[in-house]
């Protein structure tokens, strides 16, 4: 009888271009850039400017300040062209859409895409 046998739900294991999440978080920035698409590679090779660096710093700070097992406070930004990197996973970003800040929770599937894509 199928009702007696509780089927355990298996979740799809996330991987970005064949690299699973744990490895992705540990990988160096150079190796990460190699995994990305050409537009993102070009952007990183031309160097991270001050503003994206500041956003990453504020995201780290918010994550550290948040209690365990809870969402961190949203970090507001106008940087819709910021490429999502594994370090940002789990963070909450308020992305400006020209009128208001749309709250976006960064999930693993978003890696390699732009913040602006999720603020519609």
In spatial order, strands of the major sheet run: 3-4-5
| Strand-residue proportion | 5-15%
Distance between the termini: 47 Å
Contiguous uncertain segments of 5+ residues: none
> What is the string of SSEs from the N terminus onward?
EEHHHHEEE
Mean pLDDT: 86
General description of the model:
By secondary structure, the protein is an alpha+beta fold. Helices cover 31% and strands 14% of the residues. It contains four helices and five strands, in the order E-E-H-H-H-H-E-E-E. It has helices at residues 21-26, 29-35, 38-45, 50-65, and strands at residues 15-16, 19-20, 75-77, 92-96, 101-105. It has a three-stranded mixed beta sheet, covered by helices on one side. The protein has a two-stranded antiparallel sheet with strand order 1-2. A hairpin with a 4-residue loop joins strand 4 and strand 5 (101-105). The protein is globular. The protein starts with 14 loop residues before the first strand and ends in a 15-residue tail after the last strand. The mean pLDDT is 86.
């Amino acid at each position: 009888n199928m009702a007696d046998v509780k089927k355990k739900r298996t979740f799809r294991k996330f991987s970005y271009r064949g690299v699973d999440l744990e490895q992705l978080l540990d990988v160096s920035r150079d190796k990460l850039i190699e995994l990305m698409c050409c537009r993102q590679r070009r952007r990183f090779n031309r160097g991270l400017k001050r503003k994206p660096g500041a956003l990453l710093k504020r995201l780290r700070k918010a994550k550290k300040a948040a209690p365990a097992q809870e969402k961190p406070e949203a970090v507001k930004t106008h940087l819709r062209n910021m490429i999502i990197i594994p370090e940002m996973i789990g963070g909450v970003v308020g992305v400006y859409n020209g009128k208001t800040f749309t709250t976006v929770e960064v999930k693993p599937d978003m890696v390699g895409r732009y913040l602006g894509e999720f603020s519609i």
